[in-house]
Amino acid sequence: MKDSETIETMTNEALQNLISTWVPEVTFSEEASQFLTIHVPPSQLHLLMSQLKSTEETQFDYLFCLSGVDWGEKLGVVYHLESTTLRHMLVVKVEAEDREQPYLDSVYDIWATAEFHEREVFDFFGIKFNNHPNLKRLFLTEDWIGYPLRKDYEDETNMIIR
Amino acid sequence: METATKQTSFKSEEYFINMGPQHPATHGVLRLLLTIDGEIIKKVEPDLGYIHRSIEKMCERDSYQQIVHLTDRMDYLSSNINNEAVCLAVENALQIEIPERVKVIRTIISELTRIASHCLWWGVMGMDVGALTTYFYGFRDRELINDIFEETCGARLTMNYNVPGGLMFDIHPNFVQRVKDFITHFKTKLPEYDRLLSNNIIFQKRTIGVGILSKEDAISFGASGPVGRASGYSCDVRVHHPYSAFDKVTFKEVLRTEGDTYARYLVRIQEMWESLSIVEQLIDQIPEGEHRVATNAVIKLPKGEFYQKVETARGELGVYIISTGTKSPYRLKFRSPGFSNLSLLNHIAVGGKIGDLVATMATLDLVIPDIDR
Question: Domain for residue A152, yes or no?
Fold first, then answer.
C-alpha cells in the first residue's frame, strides 16, 4: 500500500492514458459531456470494470448510476462511476452485439448495487446479463410481452403517443 | 411425555410469508417475500412495480417543462428537491445564469422540505415500532412547513415551484417572517423528539445493534443519504458537489460510524438541526432581484449528455439526460436514492427477526413511488 498522500485525484488525461494501457480496444468519446466517457467492447467489459475498482490509482468504488439505453441499432448500458476516496468520475459505455439477443457481462460481483439495476435494465430493455444471480423481471409481471423502454415498443392501450 | 418427544423431533423448515403490498410498515405498495425459519429471516425479496408509472418513458415524449411536474410524483416528500434536480440539469445544459435570489430561495425551500420529510419520517418511525404519539407530534410540526409552502407555492405536497430558469412565482410577503417563526417554534420542539423517542429505553433496545451496515457495503450497494452517512460514509451531495447556494453556507455533514438502525435514526435527527441552521443563515440574506429568467417557450437542449445530482431527504437523486437536440430528451434516467437503499435491505435484514425488519425498514425511509418511478 502506497502512502495515501501519493495517491491523488486523476485528471481526465491521466485516466485516459492509464485505461488505454489496460485495454487498448477502448475508445474515448468526443461528445459533449461533463465526464470523461469511454466506450468498451462487451468482451472487455468485466475485465476493465474490475481493474477500475481494484487498482489503487483509480479506486472507482461507487457505481452511482447504471442506465440502459436504446441507441437505435444497438442496445447498451451506461455506467457512471465515482471514487469515494479520490473523487474522480468516469462514464463507461458498452453496446451489446445483437439487438435480438443482447448479452452483456454482469458487474454485480464488483458493485453490489448492480444486481438490482441490471434487473431493471433487463426488465425494460431485455438485455441479458451473464452470471447474474437472479435475472428476472423486477417491476413488470413475468408474463409481460416486450420491453417497454425500447424505442420500437408499441402498446396501443397503455401508451399515449403525441 | 409423548407430546414432548414429538415437539423435540419436530423438524424446522423454512417457509414463505408475504409482507405487503398492504402492510402498514411498508408505507405504500411494497411487497416483501420473506423466507423465514421460525421468526428468523433467511431471505428478503422485494417485489416491485405495484405503482410503476414508467415516468422515464413519459419523459421521452414530454417537454422539459412538463418533466419537472412528473418528478413531484416520485419522492413526493422531497418534491421540491426533485423539481430542482431537473431544473438544474436543464439550466446547466443551456448554460443559463440563474439569479442569486433564486439560488438562495431554492436552498431555503429544499432545507424546509428536508425538515418536513424528516418530521414525517420521525412520526412514522415511532409508529412502526409501536409509539403512536410520535405520529401526531411529527405531523404537527410538518403542518407548519406545509402552511408556509401553501402560501408561497399554492400547494402542500406536489409543489411544482421550480421551473427551468427560476421559480414559478416570487415568495409570498409573509414568507420570511413565517419561516423565522417556524425556526423559533421548531427549536423548542426538536428536544421533545429526543425526550420522547431517542432516549426511550424500549426504543433503544429495538434499534441499537439492529440491521448493521458496514461502510464498505454501504458504498458497494450505492447507499446514500442518512443511510450511507450512518455507516460513516461521507456521501452528502451538498458537500461534495454543491449546487444552488450550498457553497455559501456552513454546515456539518452528520456522520456516525455504528451503521445500525439507531445510528440512522440519530443522523436524521441531527440533520434537522443542520437544516435549521442552513435556513437561519440564509433567511435574512435573500438578495433582491428577479425570481426567474426568461427561457424559450420551447426548450431544446443541445446535443449531448447531462448529469445532475442533488441531495434529497432520502439521498442522492441523479438525473441523466441524453439529448439529441429536440424538445424532449432521447433518454432520461432517474437514479433514485430509494431504489439503491432498498437493494441492501436483504443484506442487513438476514439473521434478524421480523420485528427487527420493521425497525430497519423504517430507518431506510423508503418512499415507494421513488422506487417504482
Answer: no
CB-CB contact of B294 with B165 (8 Å): yes
Do residue A113 and residue B54 have CB atoms under 8 angstroms apart?
Answer: no
B81/B373: higher pLDDT: B81
Instruction: Evaluate whether residue A147 is within a structural domain.
Output: no
Mark yes or no for CB contact B306/A33 under 8 Å: yes
Number of domains in chain A: 1
Q: What is the CATH number of the domain that holds A64?
A: 3.30.460.80
| Structural domain that includes position A69 | 12-130
pLDDT digits (tens, 9 = 90+) for A96-118: 888 888 999 899 889 999 999 99
Q: Which of these, B22, B47, B43, lies nearest to B32 by C-alpha position?
A: B47
Q: Higher-confidence residue: A3 or B356?
A: B356
Position A132, amino acid: H
Query: In chain A, what residues touch B48 (CB-CB under 8 Å)?
Result: 138-139
Q: A38: part of which helix (H) or strand (E)?
A: strand A37-40
Cβ-Cβ contacts under 8 Å, A120 against chain B: 339
Element spanning A125, H or E: helix A114-125
Residue A100 grid coordinates: 435480438
Q: Within an 8 Å CB–CB cutoff, is residue A4 touching chain B?
A: no
Domain boundaries of chain B, sorted by first residue:
2-371
Phi and psi at B30, nearest 5°, equal: -110, 135
Tens digit of each residue's pLDDT (9 = 90 or more) over A9-19? 777 777 777 87
Please return the burial class of B75, using the count of CB atoms within 10 Å of its CB with bins 0-12, 13-18 and 19+. buried
Task: Say if residues A148 and B57 touch (Cβ distance below 8 Å).
Answer: yes
- Residue A2 makes CB contacts below 8 A (sequence gap 6+) with A56
Cell of B56: 422515464
Write down the H helix ranges in chain B: 2-9, 55-59, 64-71, 79-94, 100-128, 133-153, 175-193, 201-207, 215-220, 226-229, 237-240, 261-283, 337-343, 345-349, 354-364, 368-371
Q: Is residue A3 part of a domain?
A: no
Flag whether residue B322 sits within 8 Å of chain A, measured between CB atoms: yes
pLDDT(B1) > 50: no
According to the model, what pLDDT value does residue B111 have?
Answer: 92
Per-residue pLDDT tens digits for B273-291: 999 999 999 998 888 888 8
Would you tell me which CATH number, out of the four given (3.40.30.10, 1.10.645.10, 2.60.300.12, 3.40.50.720), belongs to the domain B2-371?
A: 1.10.645.10
Q: Is the peptide bond before B337 cis (omega within 30 degrees of 0)?
A: no
Choosing among B61, B220, B240, B341, which should be mutated to test the A contact, i.e. which has the most A CBs within 10 A?
B220
Residue with cell 424538445: B327
Burial (CB < 10 A; 0-12, 13-18, 19+), residue B300, is middle
